[in-house]
């Protein structure tokens, strides 16, 4: 089992999508909750970041039944993200993976811009130091460019569904045996990461965040059952495409091929680095 925690209204909307899958225990923390309960915690909202930092809620009792593996979702520009470190401190004995949703910062001004910049940098530094297992950065702007032509009324739900399905598939890969290949676990120092969606014609990556200085790239390739059974030379074709990608002693590549019951092939690439990403 994996515990998924959404901090803030936007992050809770993503976390709530895991509720229908039995492998997850989902905890929501936001100010829209009317009354706290076993899996929902009402947080207070304030007018400035200092008040959040001075009013960190005690959540040890709320989190008494969380699993050993915790996935913590936060949206950088939300005021509630100021609670992040205080809440995570109360989960420090768990394996924590951060999923940081980065807004389009070009039109952010004032306090939201300052909040985003501070949270973005601090969470990366904590992950890089080993206090968190990893931090994965997802950019709403990149996702919008990948998905294209999203109706305004469906905007956030479309992005949230994409983020949810990506995280869920990464969890599936971690706990499933591939048909062939093996993804090498990243080095301990490479705790900052992002994900790319693959064009299955050429295994080109469409990055959900533009990561600086990729150190390790792990390709998860999902192929329809019929192709796996009938298409001769498929493995060599895929491996040859991977061999054409830039590789050296500082940029390593590994892969694994999985079976999917879906008619359409798909895949992801997870890029890992030890470099703290700049807010630009």
Structural domain tally: 2
Q: Strand tally, please? A: 12
Distance between the termini: 36 Å
**Cα gyration radius (Å):** 19 Å
- Helix vs. strand class: alpha/beta
Q: How would you describe this structure to a colleague?
A:
With 280 residues, this protein is of the alpha/beta class. The chain folds into two domains: 2-172, 3-Layer(aba) Sandwich (Rossmann fold); 193-273, 60s Ribosomal Protein L30, Chain: A (2-Layer Sandwich), CATH 3.30.1330.190. 29% of the residues lie in helices and 28% in strands. It is built from eight helices and twelve strands. The chain has helices spanning 9-15, 49-53, 84-89, 110-128, 140-147, 155-174, 225-230, 234-243; strands at 2-7, 24-30, 40-42, 69-75, 95-102, 134-139, 180-182, 192-199, 204-207, 216-224, 252-260, 266-273. Strands 1, 2, 3, 4, 5, 6, 7, 8, 9, 10, 11 and 12 form a twelve-stranded mixed beta sheet that branches. The chain is globular, with a radius of gyration of 19 Å. The model has no long low-confidence stretch (mean pLDDT 90).
